[in-house]
Fold this sequence. Notes:
- The protein is built from 4 helices and no strands.
- By secondary structure, the protein is mostly helical.
- Helix 1 (11-32) runs antiparallel to helix 2 (36-60) and helix 1 (11-32) packs antiparallel against helix 3 (78-107).
- The two termini are 29 Å apart.
Amino acid sequence: MRIHPAIADNSKHLRHLAAMLRALADLAERAAGRSRVVCALVLCLLDPAEAVARQYLQKIAPGAVTPPARAPLRSIDAVAEALDLAARFRALADTLAALAHNCRRSATPGNQPPARSSRPAACAAIAGLDSS
Length: 132
C-alpha cells in the first residue's frame, strides 16, 4: 500500500479527523432513535460526508479502504441505514487512526517521540492544496 508522504508528519491531525468521524458515527446512531423523518434528514446530510471521508482516505492511502458494499439510500428502513452509516463511519475512523499510528511508529526510530516541527507545506499537501 502506497502512503502519502505527509501522513507521518501529520499523524496528530489524522487522529483528530478519526475522532471527528467517530463523532459523526455517534450522530448517525442517535438519529436512529429519532422519528423516521428526523432520521431520514440526518441520513441525507451525513451520507455525503461519509463518501467524502472515504474518498479522502483513498487518496492519502490507496487501497486502505474498500468501496462500501451497500445500496444507495432508501427511505424504507431509515433506522437500519442510520446504524449502517454509523458502522461505516467507525470503520473509516478506525482505519484512519491505525494508519496514523502505524505511520507515526515507522517514522520514529527506536520508538522515540517525533521531533516537533511546524510544516504548513505538509498540511497543505494532505489537503491537496497548493501552498504557494
